[in-house]
Design a protein that fits this description.
With 118 residues, this protein is of the alpha+beta class. The protein has one domain: HIT family, subunit A (2-Layer Sandwich), CATH 3.30.428. It has three helices and five strands, in the order αβββαββα. Strands 1-2-3-5-4 form a five-stranded antiparallel β-sheet. The longest helix has 22 residues. The chain is globular and about 35 Å long. Bound molecules: adenosine monophosphate. The site of adenosine monophosphate (AMP) has 10 residues, from loops.
Length: 118
């Protein structure tokens, strides 16, 4: 079982921002920038080629809501959304990265970011 399946099953903890029947959304444990967030389908899909279109659409619908939340609470200057497949994909369970970008940034702890977002 991959690490994201374990997070979805609550076998290992995460800083969870949102969940519904289809996705779980939590902070990346090794963030590139404050608020780096992952949107992960609860059903196991390996990658972009494996995930079904309805689930993919839901991932992006939730991405819009989370991107708005991050803007409201962290006031980023830009945001990247990326998703790795094959080479460069560390966790073989589909996930969309939301990576806020800042003109100037003081890195804060995951716990502090989480407190701002909850
Ligand atoms: P990728 O290279 O697209 O597969 O990215 C995997 C991401 O998962 C990396 O940014 C990791 O920092 C992140 N990650 C790995 N383990 C955990 C975990 N237990 N909780 C949250 N994020 C994780």
């Amino acid at each position: 079982m991959d690490i994201f399946c374990k997070i979805i099953n609550n076998e290992i903890p995460s800083y969870t921002l949102y969940e519904d029947d289809i996705v779980k959304v939590f902070l990346d444990v090794n963030p590139n920038h404050n608020g780096h967030t992952l949107i992960v389908p609860k059903k196991h899909y390996q990658d972009f080629f494996d995930i079904d279109e309805d689930t993919l659409m839901h991932v992006y619908k939730v991405a819009k809501d989370i991107a708005k939340l991050l803007k409201e609470r962290l006031n980023y200057d830009g945001i990247s959304m990326c998703q790795n497949n094959g080479l460069g994909q560390e966790v073989k369970h589909y996930h969309l990265h939301l990576i806020p970008k800042y003109k100037e940034e003081s890195k804060i702890s995951l716990g502090e970011v989480y407190n701002k977002l909850k």
